[in-house]
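Subject: Predicted fold for Lipocalin-like domain-containing protein, 259 residues

User T.R. writes:
Posting the sequence so we have a shared reference for the thread.
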Amino acid sequence: MKNIKIMYLLLASFVLIFSACEPIVDETSLVDSTNVEGVQLVATQSTPGGNKVTLKMVTPGITGYWNFNLGKALTNEVTVVYPIPGKNTFTYVGTLGSQFFSKTIDVQIDKLDTPLNQDWYDLVSNNTATGKTWVFDRAVNLWWFMSAPNNPDGAMGAWWDANNCCPPSDAGGKMHFDLNGAANFNHYETTSATPKKGSFVLDVPNKKLIITGSKMLGYSAGNKDGVYQIIELTPTKMVLYLSNNEANGTGWTFVFKPL
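User M.O. replies:
I've generated the structure tokens; pasting them so everyone works from the same file.
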């Protein structure tokens, strides 16, 4: 009798052990609220063909963000004053529920009837399609120098006056910005060299200039990500700062003037 009781206790223990090891199955699963074709994007211009554009994703149950080429808006609706005439494609990236998607909408901009932020005119001139050329301001003592890392406020404090010792290979070169159909950027190793073509993003709210597909003047002290902090930008002067250059991990400051 005693042996039978012990056997029952052992069986009960095994049942408890195996039941405790059974996986917990979550029956909840994500369900798509619609398909990509059902996502409705709407673009409204403040005037016919104008450059002030409101982008909306109006389908309920969808979340995501707008990529308007020169920046991103983490919202379903954004209004942008777009600086580039022509046919422009804007992208909404979101989730249907169980899967991510992207969808585009085209907007034809025929006129820049809403003024841009002044930084755009300072960078590319009032004639945005023709653009503007910048060179190092070699008339000043400090135009390409090592500075404090991770400290934009200390950008003008020189740690090492590199331009008088070891100027960059493109010290006599130039770079050109324009908005002729796109945000175009060209780097010239010398004033007569064949340009290395790329593009740029002027992030006005965050005071950043981002170069892609090419290289900034003075690139030997740059970073491959091409992101520069704007310290000063006027019609006659541009000062850029790199917080942590790849060559030595310090800051670096670049001083330019229009050609």
